[in-house]
Amino acid sequence: MTPAVSVIVVNHRSAAEAAACVASLREAFAHEKLDGEIVLVDCGSGDEEVRALAGLSGDTNVFLPDNRGYSGGVNAGLARARSARLLISNADVVFHPGAVSALLSRIEDPQVGAAAPLCFWDVQERLRLPAESPTRFRAQLGRERFAPFARRQIALWEKGGDAEHLSGAVLAARRDVFDRVGRFDERFLFEWEETEWEDRVRRAGFRLRFVPEARVRHLYARSSSRNPETERRRADSRRQYRERRWGRLGRAILERAPQPQWNGFVRSPEPALPARPGAWAAVSTNPSLVPFAGAPLDTALRLPDEVLASLPRGPLYLRAFSPADGEPLETAVWEKR
After folding, report:
1. pLDDT tens string 296-333
2. In this structure, which CATH number among 3.90.550.10, 3.90.1640.10, 3.40.50.300, 3.30.160.620 belongs to the domain 5-129+167-226?
3. Which residues have CB under 8 Å from 286's CB, separation 6+?
């Protein structure tokens, strides 16, 4: 019998997180009464990792000898998936009950090419990861205006709707969409693969839908910090995307443009903001604070240890802003050493 959904979980050096992901999917299938299959893909993590993954309850295991990147892992999983309804997931994701069904219901609309859930960053599930990835030229220059971006994030987090680009941590799509626009481009070895694929989806006339009723926890940047090749792969993928979208000249302009600097921000002794009822917090490693993770400031916010552990050394920007108009109220910078 053909399963109702095929979930492709792509792993690299994240066996413990993959175990939690698979367990949450099994619970979701039972809770939502879904006949789903799990296609567990590993990208060259080594024998010890493969042995750990083999003990999980994946329906199909695809253990690649080399690290073909997330794009290669997705494509290998697609080749083995049996359902016409597909869910692609990082290994470091935990699904809430109802999330799978909520995503599948959105892609029943033939005009929707892909759908993504609301991702929480922390265990307490207070910090929301960006609903939308800003990819326009001015965003790449670090000059995307904060206020309109902030208003749009709040609207997407609260009501959902169409997005320009979705995060690739979890994506739901139909097989006919992949048949029409193609699979992920494996030249993108780390990040930007979903952005380039979504460009093709939109050019084909499909919409991208953010679904806040579908909720997951994404342990963002946890696994990538274990891979010594992460930064090189990220830079190569970013360079490829920029040149493909804006040509060699556009890529050169972006690479040579001076990076925005923080000026006038108060230095904070800790990664925290005081309570400010009615306001929201924005947290970002970018001085423009676009994109950002966000949380209501009804109570004081201090970034939890599991979030801090996933961040690189350097400045972290914390901003209180008005959700009504997106205007900043105060901004502080904290340095991770």
Report:
1. 999 999 999 999 988 989 999 999 999 999 999 999 99
2. 3.90.550.10
3. 142, 260, 292, 317
